[in-house]
Please model this.
Amino acid sequence: MVAKLSAGTFYGQTQKRWEVAGFTFVESVYTAQSRLHIPLHTHENAFLYFVIEGFCEEVYGRKSRTVCPSTLVLHPAGNPHSNRWHDAGGRALHIDIAPARAETIREYVPIQSGPAEFRNGLAPWLSGRLYSECQRQDPVSLLAMEGLALEILAEISRHRLHSPERTPPRWLLQARDLLHARFTENLYLDEIAVLPQSEQELAFVRVSGNTLAEEYP
Model:
């Protein structure tokens, strides 16, 4: 049976915990005593976690990843996953997002609906600032923590909105089928073009990651 953790609850030893405006921040430490191998489980709420120390192998669905320090990971509510921390254990900062707060955020930007990780860019950097603010804890820290959590979610949404197109349009699939079927022939772009040449080449790069000349030298 897959365990379901209630809102704001995480495996590991809870070192510190803060709550503000629909966000719950939990700093967790993973040791041999607290269990390094975490079985398959889900969470009631969507959450992020930022690895501060250690390395973690995570399995979610049919995929797996190795999470290292300064990596930010997002899990939607109810997403089954398991974790195995390496022998030295680790430390992570979790950000639990209450459903009511998530709905308020969705009025402005879409929230990533699937699991995701961020190793570079602004989102992990902001997460490091958030952890520093958690340790600071002066009279305005909770306000700063709320603001940084919102900024992290905004950056994740911006990253999603600006990600390259990965679902090929029908015309591009037809063009690729034609190229595969007649790859021995000297085809010209005007024989397969549905869009103007510049737009077609740009769309091809967005989907395949290569230019037509690189894909079919």
